[in-house]
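Here is one chain, start to finish.
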Amino acid sequence: MIYGCCFSIICLVFITMFSVIYFSKKRINSLENKIYSLLLITNMIGLILDITGFVCFKTLGVGNDISVIVSKIYLIYYFSWTYFIMIYFFVVSFENKKISDAKKKKYTELFTTIYLLMCVVTILLPFEVKFTSEAAYSYGMAVNVVYFASFICILLMIIFMICNKTNLKNKAYYPFFAFMILGGIALYIQKCYPDVMLLISCQSIVTSLMYFTIENPDIKMLSEVTAAKDAADKANRAKSDFLSSMSHEIRTPLNAIVGFSECIKNADSLEEAKENAADIVTASESLLEIVNGILDISKIESGKLELVQSDYDIYKILDEVVKLIKARLGDKPLNFEVNIAEDIPHVLYGDHFNIKKILINFLTNAVKYTDEGYVKFDVKCVIVNNNVCRLIMSVKDSGRGIKKENIDKLFTKFQRLDEDKNTTIEGTGLGLAITKQLVEMMHGKIVVNSIYGEGSEFTVAIDQRISNHKLETQEDVSDDVIDLTGRKILVVDDNKLNLKVAVKLLQPYKCVVETCESGFGCIDKITSGNKYDIILLDDMMPKMRGSETLTRLKADSKFNIPVVALTANAIQGMREQYMLLGFDDYLAKPIDKKELNRILNKYVLKNALVEGNDKSTKTVEEKPTISESPMEENINFQDYTGKKILIVDDNKLNVKVATKIMNPYHFEIDSAYSGLECLNKVKNTKYDIIFMDYMMPNMDGIETFRQLHEDPSFKTPVISLTADAVVGAKDKFINAGFNGYVSKPIDKKMLDDAINKALKDK
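Its structure:
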C-alpha cells in the first residue's frame, strides 16, 4: 500500500504542475475546454483522497470515521471522473456537427441534472467499509449503483466507437483507448493486490495523454491557423467569384446603355433613335434591379431594414404583380395561369411593399428558369381568427428544377446553383436570399418542392391582419404629360448632369424651371424674393445637405413652398425618414415618370402660386451650364467591306449593341448565341474575326476557343468580348490564347485597336 501511496504522491505533484501550466495559458472558452478543466481538477481531488485515505488508515487505524467519509467521497469521485470523460468523449466526437444553441443548452441541463442526481443518490444510499490489516473495502447499494453507472458510461463509449469505425483513426480517441487498457490493467492489479493503489494514478496518465493529443495549445493553435487559412481562402474565392459575377451582371446592362446611347447620336431616323432609347430603358431597369438587390441585402444584414405596415388592397397588389410578370414573359412560349381565391379579405394590414417584392422574386425566377410549359400562380387564404388572415401564395413551374442536394443552398446570398447550365440566366444570386429574410421578418414560412428537370414549386405563408378600415379611392396617375404653363419649379442638385436630366424631364410640362447647385444657392434664391410652386431638393450635397437646407428654409415662418426630396437614396424606409425630416414628399432617382406626374399633380397643378407671386412676370429659364457637345473621339474607321465577322454571345441585346457599333466598318456580320452554334458556323463559313463572349451556357468562351483550335487549319483571330472586367481578366484571356480583349461596355477605341491589330496580324 505504501508503494501505491508513493506513486499517488508522484502523480499528484505531476498533475499539480501540469494544471499550473495548463491554466496559465489563455484558451478558447469552449465546452470542450471546460470539461477538460473539470477532469484535471477532479483527478487532483482523487489523488488527494487516495493519499488522505492511506494516511488516515495508517495513523488512525481501522474503523475510523474519517476513512469512511473519505471512502464515500472517493466513490463520488470515481463516478465523476468516468462521467466527465464520457461527456468529453461525446463533445469531441460531435465538435464538427452543427448543433443549435438551444439544443446545447438543453443537453447541458440534462447531463448536469443526471450528474447531480447520481451524487445525491450516492450520498443517500447505504454504504459500508470493511477494514483489514492491509486495506479498506467499500460495499453496499451505493457502491453497486456507482459501479453500474460507471460501467454504463464506459459501455456507451465502446458502442459509439464500434458504430463509428471510420473515426477510430482520429487521434482524439487515443486517450480513450488508453483509458480502457490502463483502467482494466489497474483494476486487475488492485483485485490481486489490494494494497496497490493504481486506478487514480492511471487516470492521471490518461488525463495527461489527452493534453498532448487534444488539448495541446500548439496543436490547437496549428489547427486554428489552418482553419483560419482555409476560411480566408474560401472567403477570397467567394469575393473573387462575387466581383466577377457583379462585373458581368452590372456591365452587361451598362454595355447596352452605353452602346445604344452611342447609336442614338448617330441615328439616321427618329424611329431608329426611339428603338435604341427603348432598349436603353430595358437595360436601365435591369441595372436598377441589380443595384436595389445589393442595397436590400446590405440593409437586411445591417439590421436597418424595417417593415413599413399600413392598410392595403391585396387584390390591387396581386393585379400589379400579375401585370408586371406578364410583361416579363416576352416571347417565351409559357402558359401563365393565375388563380386567386375570391374569399380573401380585400383590405389587409401589413407591409404590402415587401409582400409584392416577395411575389415578384418568386415569379421572376419561375419565368427565368422555365423555357416552355407553364407557370402557375395561386393565392388563397386561411382565416386564423377574426383578426388574422394567413395568405398562402404558391408559384409552380415546369422549368429546370433543383437538385435535391442544392435546395438548402437556394437562399444563400450570391449563390447561383447549377452555374454551368444556368450561365445564360441573368442574376446576382440575391433575389431568394432577400426573399427568405423578408419572409422571416414577417414571421412567415417558405416551403420548396422540386424535381430536377421537371420543375419547382415555392409556397410562402404569411399572416396579415384583417383591416376594417375603408381605403380611400385614389385615381391612378398616368404617365401622360400635364400642362403646367406659368408654374415655376426650382431643382437643387450639386450634380450638373442630374440637373440636366431633371430639366429635360420637366421640359414637356411647359413650366419654368430654375436650377442651382447647392443648398446655399437655394436659400439665396428664396431670400431674394423668388417664388416657386415646388422645390425638388437633393439631400446629399457638399457643405450643406438638403435636410439642413430645408431646416433653414423652414426657420422662416412665412416659408410655405412644398419641398420634395429628390435623392438617389432609395432603399426601403427612406420615404418615411425624409417625411420625418420635414419634406413634403419623396422622389427617388432615377426619376419615374409616373411618380413625377403624381407629385406635380399634387403640389403644382392643384395648388395656386403662393400669395404675392406675380403671375404675369416672365421668368427666363436658367439652364445649367453643362457642355452640350460630347468629346470627339479620334477614330478613323477603316472600310472593311467584304470582311466577315462572327459575334458569339448568348445575350441578344449584347449582339445587337455590338452589331450597331461595328456598322461603320461595313463588315458582313453574323451572330451565334452559344459556343456550340459557333463551332457549327465555323465549319461552314470562313470568318476574318470572331468576337467571343466568355459566360455562355453549356460551353463557355474559353472552352469554345479550345475546341476551335483542335482543328490545325483554324487560323481565324478570336477576340474576347466580355463583361468580365475585373483585374487580371485580360491576362486570363490572353494567356488562354485569345488574339485580343475588349471589355463591356464596349470602348470604341479599344475595339478599333483590337480589330485593326487582328486584321493586320492576319
